[in-house]
Structure formats: structure tokens, C-alpha cells
Amino acid sequence: MKYTEIIKKLKSKSNPQNIEGMARFGINPKNNLGLSVTTIRKIAKGMEKDHELARRLWASGIRDARMLACLIEKIPLVTEKQADHWVKDFDSWDLCDHACGNLFDRTKFAYKKVGQWGKSKKEFIKRAGFALLAWLAVHDKQAEDKKFLKFLPLIRKASTDERNYVKKAVNWALRCIGKRNLKLNLAALKAAREIQKINSKAARWNAGDTLRELTSKQVLKRLRKK
After folding, report:
1. 187, 188, 189, 193: CA torsion to nearest 10
2. Residue 47 in contact with residue 72, Cβ under 8 Å?
3. How many helices and strands (H and E) does the chain possess?
4. Residue from 101, 192, 188, 113 nearest 138 by CA
5. What share of residues in the chain are helix, strand, coil (percent, to 5)?
6. What CATH number is given for 108-226 in this structure?
7. Of the candidates 69, 34, 66, which has an alpha carbon nearest to the alpha carbon of residue 49?
8. Element (H, E) at 104
9. Based on CB atoms within 10 Å of each CB, which residue in 36, 42, 93, 205 is the most buried?
10. H or E stretch at 148
11. How far apart are CA 101 and CA 71, in angstroms?
């Protein structure tokens, strides 16, 4: 399928009602056709992986085309320069999380980008760093514990960020790390208790939410079965 055909197909499925609903959940309505992730995945399923097409779709600026680009991109061809360029275009949490969980977490430089993006002062780039860490904790089943332990100081430092999209991503990353196994659960709980002592509303919220989930019977029961 050619670029013009894809854009035409995406626009034909535009849903103004969905756009309004997304806006209520903090998803940017600008350049948004309102397609659900399920619809975008169905379109991607019938397409071949195509690096140049993915780049063109991203360059369109259309939220839905960019989400499709993440699904049809040839992961081995993605460069750090491309990833850094795309992350600067993030203007909504859904596109950020989608790109991190369907593309960037599969690149060979994913962990490197966690460290770089997680230190950014820009809201969505910083969110990308922690969203990427959260997805890696979920998807990279073979990763050694040390890959995640080294990011706990970064999480502690970012835990005081009051910006909602950053705050929630930092919390998400810590909880995902703590749900990998018992060793990381203990490490994440220790970090959460240290964060809890910080004189910061965001830090206290982060710690409280993490401690509630990681000490829950459901989580501990699952980890003990591993």
C-alpha cells in the first residue's frame, strides 16, 4: 500500500466522537483522526514492514499515521538519531507510550535511551525515558536484574517531578520493575521507602502507590510462584 493510499484510508476512518473522548483523557486532539489502537493494529496487520514508509508516515504529523509507523517500522533499521528525532515530536502520552512499547523497547539501544531521555527537562521526552523503562521491564524477559537496578537512582531523582505525565511514568516504571521477581520487588520497595521520605508531594504519591501495589497479596503470590 502506498503512502497516499494509507493516509486516505486513515482519514476515511476518522472518528470525531473518539477525538472528543480522547481529549477528556489528556490525548492531544490536534492532528488526531480518532482511530483506536485496535483499528490501527488491524491496518498494520495487512502491511509489510517498510522503513521508508514508516518515516513518511511519521513526517505527516498525523497522530494515527505516527502510531501506524511504529508498527510497520523495520526495527533493525531504526537509528539512535531517528529515535531522538521522533521522541522530540511527542505531544501526547498515548503516542509516547505506544512508540516506546511497540518500537523503541525492541531496539538495541533501548536501555541507553532510558538513561538519556529520563534526564530530559522536556515533559514528553522525560516521560518517554520512564515509559520505555516500564515496557522493558514487562517485555524483556531475559534481562538480568542489574539492568533495572542501575536505574533506581534515576527513578528516585525523578520522583519529585510534579508534572502529571512524568510523575505517572516514573511510578509506572518502578512498579513494573518491582513486579519482575522477588529480588527486584525488594529493591523497588526499598527505593519507594526512600522516596517516601523526600519532602515532595509527587514523591510521596509515587512511593505510596508503589508500596500499595508491590506489597499486595496478589503481586507477592504471583512472584513467589516464579
Report:
1. 100
2. yes
3. 15, 0
4. 101
5. 70, 0, 30
6. 1.25.10.10
7. 69
8. none
9. 93
10. helix 146-149
11. 10
Q: Which three cell numbers stand for residue 157?
A: 531523582
Q: What is the pLDDT of residues 43-93, one digit of tens each?
A: 999 899 999 999 999 999 999 999 999 999 999 999 999 999 999 999 999
Question: And the C-alpha cell for 73?
Answer: 517500522
Inter-CA distances, 100 with 13, 181, 192, 223, Å: 25, 22, 24, 25
| Domain residue extents for the chain | 1-77, 108-226
Gap between the Cα atoms of 90 and 85, Å rounded: 10
Q: What are the grid coordinates assigned to 23, written together?
A: 481529549
| pLDDT tens track, the chain, 226 positions | 799 999 999 999 999 999 999 999 999 999 999 999 999 999 999 899 999 999 999 999 999 999 999 999 999 999 999 999 999 999 999 999 999 999 999 999 999 999 999 999 999 999 999 999 999 999 999 999 999 999 999 999 999 999 999 999 999 999 999 999 999 999 999 999 999 999 999 999 999 999 999 999 999 999 998 7
Whether the Cβ atoms of residue 176 and residue 209 lie closer than 8 Å to each other: no
